[in-house]
Amino acid sequence: AQSVTQLGSHVSVSEGALVLLRCNYSSSVPPYLFWYVQYPNQGLQLLLKYTTGATLVKGINGFEAEFKKSETSFHLTKPSAHMSDAAEYFCAVEEYGGSQGNLIFGKGTKLSVKP
Amino acid sequence: SAVISQKPSRDICQRGTSLTIQCQVDSQVTMMFWYRQQPGQSLTLIATANQGSEATYESGFVIDKFPISRPNLTFSTLTVSNMSPEDSSIYLCSVGSGNIQYFGAGTRLSVL
């Protein structure tokens, strides 16, 4: 069965610092990978996705993630944190395309940004 | 993309009662999903609801506890039946469109 591990339930960075949120997955086949963001009292918003092709994917709000098959990782980065980035981030994996079946989510990483 | 409206946004309910959550989409979609997010936990899929067929439930979830309706391609409801405090969670509706799942804002349920 698929599983997703997000290292660190809580990450704190200073404004302007690098953001790195880690995600590792277990899958016997190349999966579809997603990062979602959840702002307080809101639903999940898609940040970016990897399906096929280029392994470095760019998303909204300056975030990007790199699919590394050899490391079974899909870490999320942003060069310079902004106060508005404070939210909870979820990594998710799906075998059959994202819209067709079960998304398996990690437990989430809450990002705090200090002024 | 798809815009999803969920009602109610939050509710506080008494033990033993039932709550029906509505999910409305701004476009016709084949597949709709219901997830649960327990406090401090990640999202877990409850069931997949396709229009015109019975919902498909994931392991650990049963129709008697979480009956789902899907009367048309833009609407679905999830009922949380005979609630207990353990049902206190966020319940989210999502739809599949173009290789992506889009989520509603969720329903925050507290059971006393």
Describe what is shown at a glance.
Chain A has 115 residues and is mainly β.
Protein architecture, described:
The complex is a heterodimer of chains A (115) and B (112). In chain A, a hairpin with a 4-residue loop joins strand 7 and strand 8. Chain A is mainly β and 115 residues long. The radius of gyration of chain A is 13 Å and the shape is globular. Helices cover 0% and strands 54% of the residues of chain A. In chain A, strands 2, 4, 5, 9, 10 and 11 form a six-stranded mixed sheet that branches. Chain A has a five-stranded antiparallel sheet with strand order 1-3-8-7-6, with no helix packed on it. With 112 residues, chain B is mainly beta. Chain B is 0% helix and 54% strand. Chain B has no helices and eleven strands. In chain B, the strands form two sheets. In chain B, strands 2, 4, 5, 6, 9, 10 and 11 form a seven-stranded mixed sheet that branches. A four-stranded antiparallel sheet of chain B has the order 1-3-8-7, with no helix packed on it. In chain B, strand 7 (68-72) and strand 8 form a beta hairpin. The termini of chain B are far apart. The mean pLDDT of chain B is 92.
